[in-house]
Amino acid sequence: MKARNELRLLPWSGPDGKPCYLSTDDSDGYMSRLADNMEAVQLGMAAELLEQSQELLDDRDTETEELRLLTTKLTGALRDALRVATSRGRRLTTPESHYS
Length: 100
Description:
The protein is mainly α. The protein contains 2 helices and 2 strands.
């Protein structure tokens, strides 16, 4: 679905937090499947964290440290979800007829 020669943003970072990219036209290749699976895991973990966060926020006895840890985890999950959305958005094809 991606344009030829376009790099796929992978759902993990490289050294120093730099983005990693995959150059392939094979969406069924090993690295593409690995990236698809990692994206699914990341989105699943984000959904679970969202549910847990609501429980912590509803509990008036939640400690400051618990909220700080929650914020750290939510920040990571949001970062992952944005990377997945960016990667998937780049791979969408939009017919040019929509722009005319």
